[in-house]
């Protein structure tokens, strides 16, 4: 795949161009994230990027234990504590934090494990999760506003993350792990494959739909994805583009 840090930077630039075009009314519009406006979504992205720019990121200590505290509850509280910033100030804050993360992640020494939500991640994996999160939240912004946001080949990182996270996704749902092969069509018509072609379970179809299922933006039944084999339907049901 292309360099993940370069692609993270490119994903930021695509979202930046969209955010720069928004009117004050659009910033205040309800987003696709329940209970959040477009401004709230951008604030959340700024806050989570700011975590990466802090020196403590290199400690490798997860933010949350496996206790009762939920990720959604934590981030919702963070947004509630700071919502209300003027759009221009919020955009500047997001830009500062977002573009700084590229250099922070790229500069980490080999073998580094960085603090993240429930498990330490390598710099490359954390960059991949940032692509996935910014892409998913971009959908929350542009879909309600009816703004075009073309998919790019950068979603290959997201599809890889979703497939790579399947063992974790199965375990969260109390299901045994199972090999699943994915044969996905890229935005440009190319084929991307993940996993062992000999696996008894197989998912085929558009990578864009696969990534949206993993982001929990659409249900599997709302897509043209096909699930063949004993565990493919389960895989689509538990699929996630994130690790918490």
UniProtKB/TrEMBL annotation:
Annotated ranges, domain Mycothiol-dependent maleylpyruvate isomerase metal-binding: 9-141
GO MF terms held by the record: isomerase activity
Listed InterPro entries: DinB/YfiT-like, Maleyloyr_isom, MDMPI_metal-binding
Statement: the UniProt record of this protein carries the keyword Isomerase: yes
Domain of life: Bacteria
Keyword list, A-Z: Isomerase
Pfam families associated with the record: MDMPI_N (PF11716)
Protein name, as recorded: Maleylpyruvate isomerase family mycothiol-dependent enzyme
Organism: Actinomadura chokoriensis
Upper classification of the organism: Bacteria, Bacillati, Actinomycetota, Actinomycetes, Streptosporangiales
